[in-house]
Amino acid sequence: MNTMEAMLASLPDQYRWAADLTSPSLRAATGALVCGMGGSGIAGDVAGDVAAGAPVFVRKGYGIPGWAERLRPLVVAVSYSGNTEETLSGVEAADRAGLAIAAVSSGGALSRLARDHGWPLVEVPGGLQPRAAFGYLTGAVMRILESAGLVGETGLVEAATVTDELLGADLDGPGRRLADDLAEGLAGRITLIVASGSAAAAAYRWKTQINENAKSPAFTTTIPETDHNEIVGWSTLGSAIRRTVGVVALRDTHEPPRVAARFEPTLGRLSEGASLVGEVWAQGEHPLARIASLCVIGDMVSLRLARNAAVDPVPVEAIEVLKRELGET
Could you tell me if 46 and 18 are in contact, meaning their C-beta atoms sit under 8 angstroms apart? Predict the structure, then answer.
């Protein structure tokens, strides 16, 4: 088991850690704006998909959107390192606007700011790659939203159970066999992940995990939007695309019936160009558990792709080089 595989094996316990947290004390909020980038920002994407009954938006960039000063959301700043430039920019803008702020971090400048200002802070365990702290970060955001009255039952316990079952002992559970099959079909290909809106965050997690762990291009598309533009683009290059692009569909039994009805014909159109590699169905009842089940298969696929290509999944040299060029820490 390599380093990143060992980090993945801790995922169920990360969800349990978050489930056992003492929730920070927060005033009731009418909505939330989650500020975060990369492996930290994905926690906001997941929370937004889970909190279907409340407005939860995600900011992946500098500052805060113009509407925030008028609508006054709770700002949840998420940065595993605590030093993410864009997220700190958002925190500064939110503070100037007098917005309520809560923070999730393992330390760094964000934790210091939270302590100095008395903002609610969930400090997660450090020492991991940010993308490997997915359970800690997602769980912490869910507990903050719960405390603010924006979500009900968090689903963290079921998420831990579902991921534990899929991973199995020593990462040899049923999810491993599915991931191995998918990775074999995706070898040497650009991955296209197709999902419905309820699985959009999971699809994005697949994309970024394949990008960073397998050092390979991957893209996402969402049904029904795909049917209004993208299917046309896949119909022109024929065999060239079929050799280089592999399609994986993320499915959920809770898909709206009209969306579910679109998958078969849409995948049929896409497979006229790209190669359909397989489908992955969500497991569990709570929305978070279903998203978590899809995400963990994507994690395993990315690690199997890396292993098959003799690539170390841990370093992200291109990101580090770019940070140095920009003078970031």
Answer: no
Active-site residue, from 117, 153, 225, 323: 323
Integer angstrom CA distances of residue 266 from 74, 235, 259, 269, 273: 38, 12, 10, 5, 12
Do 106 and 237 reside in the same domain of the chain? Answer: no
Render 116-137 in DSSP notation, one character per residue. HHT--EEE---SS-GGGGHHHH
More confident of the two residues 302 and 239: 302
Q: Catalytic: 207?
A: no
- The verdict on 18 and 51 lying in the same domain is yes
Q: Evaluate whether residue 123 is within a structural domain.
A: yes
pLDDT at 329: 65
Inside any domain, residue 313: no
Q: pLDDT (tens digit, 9 = 90+) per residue, 195-242?
A: 998 899 999 999 999 999 999 999 999 999 999 999 888 877 667 777
**Residue 320 belongs to some domain of the structure:** no
Predicted confidence (pLDDT) per residue in 170-202, tens digit: 899 999 999 999 999 999 999 999 999 889 999
Catalytic annotation on 215?
Answer: no
Q: Is 228 a catalytic residue?
A: yes
